[in-house]
Amino acid sequence: MDQKVRVFYISAVCTTATAMCTLEKRGNIFYLTLTGDDEHRLNPTLISSIRSALAEAGSQSVPGSVLITTAQGKFFSNGFDLKWAQKAGSDSMARLEHMVELFKPVVADLISLPMPTIAAVTGHAAAAGFILAMSHDYVLMRRDRGVMYMSELDIGMTLPDYFTALIRSKIGSDSARRGLVLRAAKIKAEEAVEMGIVDSAHDNGEEAVEAAVRLGEQLSKRKWDGAVYGELRKSLHPETCGVLGLVNKEVLPSRL
């Protein structure tokens, strides 16, 4: 592997805590890591940081580029920052709706990113954090700690349309979707594999990341054209792309 390392740090501070992610490039693999507070709750600051990292990776994409997303601490992401919304008092619902709209382009960015994407879920992934993980092409999860959880039923909130479209697109089994959404089940790694929600389960967080790196290296060797890869991904998720406002573009080989 190319040992040259380029590191990009995107960070910012919001009213609740430091929300940050880092983007590191090793060879052709980009590593997007959620850092900052342990729960990695998605507020406008962190959402903006993630979008900046994805834009940086996309702008430097070359044939063979791959993105791996992971997180430090107990959580992959615990969803939207409800405490930040509650600080607005009577305007708390407006803040929540604002986060829902701000997060939508993150899903669009991942669905259209010109490279394979892998989520190494090293902790709990709840609500919008679950959607963040599922927006990747491959999802690898640790089995010793952490659950997949859609909390909307428990907190009394319906799903945004792009959440629903992505869940229908990514999870083929009606019983799996029912358990996730209509039972608000907290799903551990082995069960998530059986339900077709994640691709593989690993003994701990470190092994999940190592497996993601191995997969990333395998994919990188194929040297696929990023524009073609992104368009083919979009073609597999027409409902999601329609809700996100993504339009398919024809890409033809420069020569046959």
From TrEMBL:
Q: What pathway is it annotated to?
A: Lipid metabolism; fatty acid beta-oxidation
Pfam families for the chain: ECH_1
Which processes are annotated in GO (biological process)? fatty acid catabolic process
Q: Which SUPFAM superfamilies match?
A: ClpP/crotonase
* Reactions mediated catalytically: a (3E)-enoyl-CoA = a 4-saturated (2E)-enoyl-CoA; a (3Z)-enoyl-CoA = a 4-saturated (2E)-enoyl-CoA
Looking at the record's lineage, which domain of life comes first? Eukaryota
Q: Which GO terms describe its molecular function?
A: delta(3)-delta(2)-enoyl-CoA isomerase activity
Matches recorded under Gene3D superfamilies:
2-enoyl-CoA Hydratase, Chain A, domain 1
Keywords in alphabetical order, please.
Lipid metabolism
Annotated EC: 5.3.3.8
Cited CDD domains: crotonase-like
Say which family it is in.
Belongs to the enoyl-CoA hydratase/isomerase family.
The protein's name is Delta(3)-Delta(2)-enoyl-CoA isomerase
